[in-house]
Amino acid sequence: MNTTPDVRMGKWEAVGLVAGREVKTRLKSKAFLATTAVTIVLLIGFTLVMKLVQGGSDASVGVAGGSTALEAPLKSTAETLGQTIDVHPVDEAAGRRQVDDGSLDALLVGDGSKIVVVVKKDIDGKLRSALDVLAGRLALNQEIVKLNGDPAAISQAVAEAKAVVEPLEPPFDYNGQQLVMGMIAGVLIYMSLLINGQSVAQGVVEEKSSRVVELLLATIQPWQLMAGKVLGIGVVGLVQMVAIGGFGLVAGLATGVLTISLSAAVGTVVWLIVWFLLGFFAYSLVFAALAALVSRQEDVGGVITPPLMFVILGYVLGISILPSDPGNHLVEVLSLVPLFAPTLMPMRMAMGGVPVWEAGLAVVLVLALIPALVWLSGRIYRNAVMRSGAKVKLVDALRAA
C-alpha cells in the first residue's frame, strides 16, 4: 500500500501561489510605495487648494459715509451675478489708506445716490460689472420715486418674475463638486489601468526572456501562471486604489471641500473600485496574452498599444467632453461599450444622473466579455509564451495546437 502523501497542487492553489508571489513582491517594491504616496499627497494637496479657492471672495469692498447704505444691495447684486463680495463699513480716510495698501480692492464713497468708486489703479472687470448693475438699480429706483412709486415693491416684483420652463425630460442638476469628482475618478482609473496593465505585460516578458517561465510551466499550466499574475497584480492595484480613494475621501470631508452627502461620496469611491477591477481584469488579460508574443521588454509597447488606445481614447473623450457637456449622448453610448466603459462610466457615475439600468447594463456587458477574454487570452498565452526569439505572430498563436 502506497502511503506517500499527494503533494500535487490543485488548479486554484497554483493560481493562488503565483498571485501571492506577485502581491508580496510588488507591495514591497519602491515603485509601488512611491507611486501610491505621491498620488495621495497630490490628491490631498489638490483638496487643500480647492479649500483655499472656495474659502475666498471675488473682491473686498469698503463703504464709507452715505454709501454704507449700499452694503446689502451690493452683496445682493453680486450674489445674483454669481460673485462673492466682502463689504466692510469703514471711515473714508481709513478706507482710502486700505485701498492704497491693497487691503481693499475698492471703496464706495459719496452720499449713496450714485456709485462713486475709489481704486488704486484700475478696477477688476467682474467687480465693475456688479457695480454697474447696482448703479442701474439705483438710477431705476430714483426714477420710480419721481413717479411716486414704491422702489422696494417694484424690485421685489421684478426679482420674482421668472420665465416658465417646460422641459420634455426632467434635467439633472450637475454641481461643481460632482464634475470635479468625475474628473478625479477618470484620472485615477486611467492611471491605474495604464500602470498596472503595463506591469502585467512587463512581468510576462520578464519571465519569458529570463527563461523562468520554463521552470514555472514545468509544474503548473500556462493558464494558471497567467491567471495568477493578473490576479496578484490586480490585488496590488486594488490596495492602491482603496488607499488613494480613502485618503482623498477623508481629506475632502475633513476640510469641508466635499459638501455632498457621505453616502454619495462613499458610493463614488465604491464604484471607482468596482470599475477598476472590471477594467483591470479585462485589459490585463489582453495585455498578458499579447506580451507573450514577444521576448524583449522594448517590444512590449508595440504589442499592447492597440488595446491601450481604447483606454486612452475613453479617458480623453471623458475629460474633454464631460466637464462642459455632462449629458453628452456620444459619451453616454460609448460608456455602455465594454472597451470604453471602464474609463467613461465611473466618470459619469461620479458626476451623477446615470440611470440605474445603464450602470447595470455596462457592468453586465463587461462581465460577459471577461470569460471570452479568459479563453482567448489563455489560448494565445499558452501557444506563445514558450516560444522565445523572434516575435510570434498573433495568427500563429491562435492557430497553434
TrEMBL record:
GO terms for cellular component: membrane. Its main location: membrane. The chain crosses the membrane at residues 31-50, 176-195, 242-262, 269-294, 300-322, 359-378. GO terms for molecular function: ABC-type transporter activity. Keywords: Membrane, Transmembrane, Transmembrane helix. It holds the Pfam family ABC2_membrane_3. It is a multi-pass membrane protein. This is ABC-2 type transport system permease protein.
